[in-house]
Write a structure and sequence with these properties.
There is one protein chain. By secondary structure, the protein is mainly α. The chain folds into 2 domains: about 30 residues; about 170 residues, Butyryl-CoA Dehydrogenase, subunit A, domain 3 (Up-down Bundle), CATH 1.20.140. The longest helix is centred in the first third of the chain and has 27 residues. It is elongated and about 110 Å long.
């Protein structure tokens, strides 16, 4: 009888018995599955939360901050800056009152504008040379400050034709303003705001003078002075 039972048991496949995991193995596998499920759930939540950042609209710092600080400008800078606009503004005003285009006044306005353009280039040198200045005396600061004086020199070369001369001065004022606001933004906010105001008025005055050239008849200022005598 014993031999019969032993023979029957020998035919039973032992692979199923041996391959059956124990209780501890089942718990380990279950915990691993739970951990993976939690990680997958957390990854899904992170994907939902982390949305691609939309590019913020680039607003000019000049409009947001610098122009607001115009009221903080030192009074000497404001008064002297506004006084420096008199040679620009007075020329088209006189022509409009006299209803006459005076080329001598237009040339004087253009020459004064060329002087201002050269002055703006020199300001960068004076700002970059001190040891504690935020602007370094490198090629960027000192090299770009040479461009406005060169444009002013080219403008004076066109003294026989005031239209390209005035256009060259306008370009020089625009480039100097671009340097101070965008390329070399190390000036105080109040100074940049004041620069915008003064530059716009100066450019507008030059444009008005060019427009009056085609509106009013041309007359030499020396001839009108001799007739008045």
């Amino acid at each position: 009888m014993f031999h019969l039972v032993q023979r029957c048991c020998s035919h039973i496949p032992l692979k199923r018995v041996l391959s059956r995991p124990s209780r501890s193995q089942l718990l380990t596998q279950a915990s691993a599955c739970v951990t993976k499920a939690q990680e997958f759930h957390c990854s899904l939540r992170c994907l939902k939360k982390k949305k691609p950042k939309e590019p913020e609209p680039q607003q000019l710092g000049l409009l947001r901050h610098d122009m607001r600080s115009l009221k903080d400008s030192p009074k000497p800078a404001v008064y002297l800056g506004l006084a420096g606009l008199i040679p620009f503004v007075s020329v088209p005003v006189i022509m409009a009152i006299q209803q006459t285009y005076y080329p001598e006044l237009a040339f004087a306005q253009m020459t004064y504008g060329a002087t201002i353009v050269s002055f703006l280039g020199g300001v960068r040198w004076g700002f970059a040379l001190p040891e504690n200045s935020p602007a370094k005396p490198d090629w960027m600061n000192l090299g770009n400050s040479i461009v406005p004086p060169l444009l002013a020199w080219f403008a004076i070369l066109f003294k026989d034709d005031l239209t390209p001369a005035a256009i060259m001065v306008i370009i020089g004022l625009g480039i100097a303003l671009h340097y101070d606001l965008a390329l070399l933004p190390t000036y105080p906010s109040w100074f940049k705001a004041l620069r915008v105001l003064l530059t716009l008025v100066a450019i507008f005055s030059l444009v008005v003078t060019l427009g009056l050239m085609d509106v009013y008849p041309e007359k030499q200022l020396s001839n009108s002075a001799s007739k008045s005598k």
